[in-house]
Specification:
The complex is a heterodimer.
Chain A: E1 4-7, E2 10-13, E3 19-29, E4 34-39, E5 46-50, E6 54-55, E7 63-76, E8 85-91, E9 104-108
Parallel strand pairs in A: 2-9
Antiparallel strand pairs in A: 1-3, 3-7, 4-5, 4-8, 5-6, 8-9
Chain B: E1 3-8, E2 11-12, E3 18-25, E4 33-39, E5 46-52, E6 57-59, E7 67-72, E8 77-82, E9 91-101, E10 104-111, E11 115-119
Classes of the chains: A mainly beta, B mainly beta.
Chain lengths: 109, 121
């Protein structure tokens, strides 16, 4: 069973700072099937990055994804106020497919 | 632009069966996997399962014994049934569409608004 572990649990940074979020898989997975979502309170999640590094339509270029094997990273290059949210990774490569990480909350100081 | 509209009972008693339906409007029904995902209050996302237009379904092993996801292609609808609910099944339930890469889902690109289901005696 593939388990995704996200770290840190909470990230508290100032406007304009760089945020680095980690998603570690319990076994190697294809990077084609690693996704990052953003969720704001009271809203459904929205896709930011798919295929570990491809930005979804309409997503600002300050969001980027990287990684392979078991270690994946979401980077927000310069934090904006609207980036305050919870970020989840998800994988579709392993069994069971569709599993999510537990989330990282990004707070703007 | 495709829209997903969800409906179903929002308040259940323990041991009852949760039943939700998701209608797909304005887009193709085939060529995707249709998923159910839930989120307990204040907690993270949990993938429940998925189905394609042919009826091929996959489930989260932790819920598999209680879950059935079905499809009605004549109505462009997907349904979720979860039996023997308890308070632990209290959550917002989302219907969602997953795009495919080599016939395998690889990200969710459309979400329903979510349905709040509360299990309480």
């Amino acid at each position: 069973e593939v388990v995704l572990t996200q770290s840190p649990g909470t990230l508290s940074l100032s406007l304009g700072e760089r945020a680095t979020l980690s998603c570690r898989a319990s076994q190697r997975i294809s990077s084609s099937y690693l996704v990052w979502y953003q969720q704001k309170p009271g809203q459904a999640p929205r896709v930011l990055i798919y295929g570990s590094s491809s930005r979804a339509t309409g997503i600002p270029d300050r969001f980027s994804g990287s990684g392979s094997g078991t270690d994946f990273t979401l980077t927000i290059s310069r934090l904006e106020p609207e980036d305050s949210a919870v970020y989840y990774c998800q994988q579709y490569a392993g069994v069971p497919r569709g599993t999510f990480g537990q989330g990282t909350k990004v707070e703007i100081k | 632009q495709v829209q997903l509209q969800q409906w179903g009972a929002g308040l259940l008693k323990p041991s009852e069966t949760l039943s939700l339906t998701c209608g797909v409007f304005g887009g193709s029904f085939s060529g995707y996997y249709w998923s159910w995902i839930r989120q307990p209050p204040g907690k993270g996302l949990e993938w429940i399962g998925e189905i394609n237009h042919s009826g091929s379904a996959n489930y989260n092993p932790s819920l598999k014994s209680r879950v059935t996801i079905s499809v009605d292609t004549s109505k462009n609808q997907i349904s979720l049934k979860l039996t023997s609910v308890t308070a632990a099944d209290t959550a917002v339930y989302y219907c969602a569409r997953a795009a495919l890469l080599y016939q395998i889902p690889y990200f969710i690109d459309v979400w329903g608004k979510g349905t709040t289901v509360t299990v309480s005696s």
